[in-house]
Amino acid sequence: MAETEGIRLFDLKSESVASTSVETVSEIAKSISCLELELEVTKKEESFREETIHREADIPQIRVNLAVDNVQFRYMSEITEKKKKKSRQNSVADVMFENYHGYATVIAYCVDCDDKVHPYYLYGDNCKDGVYVKTSKLEQEKSVMIQGVYVCTPRIVDYQTRIDSTRSKLVENGITDVEKCDEKTVDKQCVYLKVVVVLGESTKKLSVTTTALQNKKNLKVKDVQSDHATIPGQKRTSFDCSQKNDVKRRRKSIANNKGDAQPRFFQRFYSRPDTEQPWGNFIDTAGYQESALTWKAQGEALHSVCMICYPGGCATGFRVGTGKNYIMTAAHVCRFILQSERGRVGWTTRNALKNPDVFAAFDYLKEGELKEKKKFHFKEQVHFTNDELDTAVLELEEHPDGTPMPPPLKYFQQPDFTKEFFFIGHSEGKPLAINKVDKVVDMQSDNAKQDIINIRNLSLLHTVSQEYPNGRGYELEPYHTLENQHRYLFHCKFTQGASGSPGLVFLNDGRKVVVSMLLCGYPVWYYDPDMEKFRTNWSKDCHCVEQGVNLSSVHALMSKENPELCNDIFCQ
Question: Of the CATH numbers 2.40.160.10, 2.60.120.230, 2.40.10.120, 3.40.1010.10, which one belongs to the domain with range 265-273+290-572?
Answer without folding.
Answer: 2.40.10.120
